[in-house]
Fold:
Amino acid sequence: MVEPRSAQSRPASPTLPRSAERGHLSRLATALARYGVWARVIDDSAPYLRVSNPASEYAVEDVLCERRAHDHAFLASFGVYLGSSDSLDLTARKVAWLVGAIKE
Structure:
């Protein structure tokens, strides 16, 4: 007798371990929500936050998180320091500006 597809065992999907960096990126994504941008954590060998402005197909930035001595730093894909894990609101504002979601 053949079991229904839903009853068959499925191989477990590979998961990457949770890291402090991923946690900080997730908190930054939450802080970015008020600016109307899309932000999602991409799990790669090192997690990063892909931020995009839905009003422009070209306004996309990948934000990296790097461990420092006393906190974590957020960096633009081109290496510019955007802020620290201790200043999420200010960092979110800079990232939103970077993808054109706010004008100054």
Summary: Residues 1-16 have pLDDT under 50 and may be disordered.
